[in-house]
């Protein structure tokens, strides 16, 4: 329960103060990019109760298997399943990745 309250607090705080590191071509330092719109706060629930959460879990799993496939996925050529999602990937989410994947 404490993590839920902490996360909600941080999301609301980012509306006022959200330091983001500058891109390399803009030089060193940070800038304050306040959140103008927050679609929804973090949602802590079991994926069995939501198709949306299940689809997000599946996308994350398929990306992970593309990067580091298990032996089962290698045998079944499952490491290529993420490529089926490429037509619907938001390519503008990250300028550093051709598929728009934000890597931390």
Estimate nothing, just give the exact number of structural domains.
2
Most strands sheet? 2 strands, antiparallel
In DSSP terms (H or I, runs of 4 or more residues), the helix count works out at 3
* Helix-strand topology string: HEEHH
Please give a structural write-up.
The two termini are 26 Å apart. A two-stranded antiparallel sheet has the order 1-2. It is mainly alpha-helical. It has three helices and two strands; from the N terminus they run H-E-E-H-H. It folds into two domains: 1-44, no CATH class; 46-104, no CATH class.
Helix and strand arrangement:
Blueprint: H1 2-13, E1 19-21, E2 30-32, H2 51-67, H3 71-75
Antiparallel strand pairs: 1-2
Tell me briefly what this model is.
The chain has helices at 2-13, 51-67, 71-75; strands spanning 19-21, 30-32.
List keywords for this structure.
104 residues; mainly alpha; 2 domains; two-stranded antiparallel sheet; 3 helices; 33% helix
């Amino acid at each position: 329960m404490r993590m839920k309250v902490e996360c909600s607090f941080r999301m609301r705080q980012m509306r006022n103060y959200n330091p983001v590191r500058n891109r390399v071509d803009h030089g060193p330092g940070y800038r304050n990019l306040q959140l103008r719109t927050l679609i929804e706060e973090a949602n802590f629930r079991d994926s069995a109760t939501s198709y949306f959460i299940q689809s997000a879990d599946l996308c994350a799993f398929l990306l992970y298997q593309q990067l580091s496939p298990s032996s089962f996925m290698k045998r079944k050529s499952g490491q290529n399943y993420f490529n089926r999602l490429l037509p619907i990937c938001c390519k503008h989410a990250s300028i550093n990745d051709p598929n728009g994947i934000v890597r931390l």
